[in-house]
Amino acid sequence: MSSSALPTTPSSGSARAASENAAAVAKAGDPNKKGIPTLHDYCKSEARASFRCLEDHSYDRQICRDLFQDYQDCKRVWQVMRKKANRGELE
Questions:
Q1: What is the pTM of this model?
Q2: How is the chain split into domains, by residue range?
Q3: Residues 6+ apart with CB under 8 A from 50
Q4: Contacts of 73 (CB under 8 A, 6+ apart)
Q5: Does residue 5 carry a pLDDT above 90?
Q6: Residue 6 — very low, low, confident or very high, per pLDDT cuts 50/70/90?
Q7: What are the residues whose beta carbons fall under 8 Å from the beta carbon of 51, sequence distance 6 or more?
Q8: Cα separation of 68 and 75, whole Å?
Q9: Digit-coded pLDDT (tens) for 24-70
């Protein structure tokens, strides 16, 4: 199976994709009091891509490891943003 058959995300991807996700959530309106999207909303595209990869490749986690890493990176960015919001450091 070639690597071109795998779903892809932007290279060095999740930080850029995560900021795009945040912008989309902000436009849609966020019920969160601090203006921070939920983890589910913030990393939705990374989560979907990793689940889609698992389904498409018979749940072979090794094939999908890059997409898992993208999700983990997105989650880390979200956690830092959430901590800043909790400390009142976000604009």
A1: 0.62
A2: 39-86
A3: 64, 67, 68, 70, 71
A4: 13, 14, 15, 18
A5: no
A6: very low
A7: none
A8: 11
A9: 555 444 445 668 899 999 999 999 999 999 999 999 999 999 999 99
